[in-house]
Amino acid sequence: MNQLTSRESEADKPGESVPGTALPGALPEALRAELVAFRRDMHMHPELGNQEFRTTAALKTRLEKAGLAPRLLGMGTGLICDIGAEGGEGRGMLALRADIDALPIPDTKTDCVYRSTVPDRAHACGHDVHTTVVLGAGLVLAELHREGQLPHPVRLLFQPAEEVLPGGAPDAIECGVLDGVRSVIGVHCDPKVDAGKIGIRPGPITSACDRLEVTLDGPGGHTARPHLTTDLVTAAAKVATEVPALVARRVDARSGLAVTWGRLETGHACNVIPQHAELSGTVRCLDLDAWRQAPDLVHGAIQEIADLYRAKPVVNYIRGVPPVVNDPVVTELLRDAMTARRGSDSVEDTQQSLGGEDFSWYLEHVPGAMARLGVKPPGERGSRDLHQGDFDVDESAITVGVELFTAAALLDT
Predict the structure, then answer these.
(1) Structural domain contains residue 22
(2) Same-domain pairing of 265 and 407
(3) Which of 71, 79, 240, 377 is the least buried, fewest Cβ under 10 Å from its Cβ?
(4) Distance between CA atoms of 121 and 108, rounded to whole angstroms?
(5) 297: Cβ–Cβ under 8 A, 6 or more apart, which residues?
């Protein structure tokens, strides 16, 4: 468990001559090996949202061993830990956020010694890496604080239930994790970006993602007499095909507001018009303002189509997450931090994705930014996509993430 993985890139091992060597906070070799072992252990023991008891206990134990005082969140899992905030005075803290939950899918890696030991559970989104990066940064920053080299206080934020809509962030905020926080940063693994690099983007970097459930009801009957019924099959088909177009035409096309259906069920016999139909899908949006309008727009479009066919709709619009909108100033902090550690070639611009991330809820309260952390072994063809059972990372990304966060804390002014 303490040996470094063969998936680790030689170019990203410590000791290389890279920019930023004047910055304190280099990752010691022993700690580097420990973090790889921690990530592997977490990968072997994935826990779903709000069930991360083992993970929370492991984090608490390690932080206390370092002389820190982590505090459990009121939800029962997750914790925060402040470094350099003993006096409780001065400006607000920089928060380093990690999500600690796994996904309800099987680990399909066949040649991996640290594959999941829990059936139908896997760290297939890189949260084990995010968690290890924040833990490692915290351990390095704690030592810098003891040496009097940490300029401002830092909060480590280990958040549960990112994968559970609307995410664990709102509950964490209710527990006070942003009290005293001035800004927040995070990373998300990106299997399309080479290990040793990060991708950044000011403004929106992810999309909003909501869930939509619709039922349609009306008197059914024999297919020989459709005029005496509410033709729910046709009504449901029209909702499925016309609502996305209606909604898209009622906002600026650049907002990327899209309704996409994943399920439509109705009827059981070829000659019976049913009395009930169900549709479910997602609403995704690139723009924050359009996302805020989306529920009213979707409700209105569904009602219009249902009225045409005399169907009675019930719409359950389930808020997911808004887009992550990176603050330009905090984004530049990430760029400066990575450049200081590894040079300007280690930073690349990235596109806005259609995925959702509940990091966005923090940005409704404080400025912040999320970077894409490269986890693809350089030179490897193809990539292992997120939310797939064979997902894995080049573990040198752990060192890169720790360097990024420690430099950001040191450069944050």
Answers:
(1) yes
(2) no
(3) 71
(4) 10
(5) 247, 250, 251, 257
pLDDT value for 44: 98
**How far from the centroid of its chain's Cα atoms is residue 82's Cα?**
22
Residue identified by tokens 């600026």 is 252
Q: How confident is the model at residue 384 (pLDDT cuts 50, 70, 90)?
A: confident
Residue 283 CB contacts under 8 Å (≥ 6 apart), including other chains: 208, 209, 210, 211, 212, 257, 258, 259, 260, 294, 298, 317
Q: Are residues 252 and 299 in the same domain?
A: yes
CATH number at residue 274: 3.30.70.360
Residue 124: inside a domain, yes or no? yes
Q: Residue 409 carries which DSSP code?
A: H
Angle in degrees, CA 145, 146, 152, rounded to 5: 20
Pair (183, 219) in one structural domain: no
Q: What per-residue confidence (pLDDT) applies to 287?
A: 93
pLDDT at 379 (0 to 100): 83
Going by C-alpha positions, the residue among 195, 398, 366, 10 that lies closest to residue 406 is 398
Query: Does 9 score more than 90 pLDDT?
Result: no
CATH of the domain at 73: 3.40.630.10
Instruction: Report the C-alpha gap between 307 and 152 in whole angstroms.
Output: 59
Q: Is residue 252 part of a domain?
A: yes
pLDDT digits (tens, 9 = 90+) for 293-324: 999 999 999 999 999 999 999 999 999 999 99
In 3D, which of 4, 119, 1 has the Cα closest to residue 397? 4
Burial class (CB in 10 A: 0-12, 13-18, 19+), 232: buried
Neighbours of 224 (CB within 10 A): 8
* pLDDT at residue 90, rounded to an integer: 55
Q: Which domain holds residue 99?
A: 10-204+324-411
Average confidence (pLDDT) over 272-296:
96
In a domain, 344, yes or no: yes
Together in a domain, 241 and 145: no
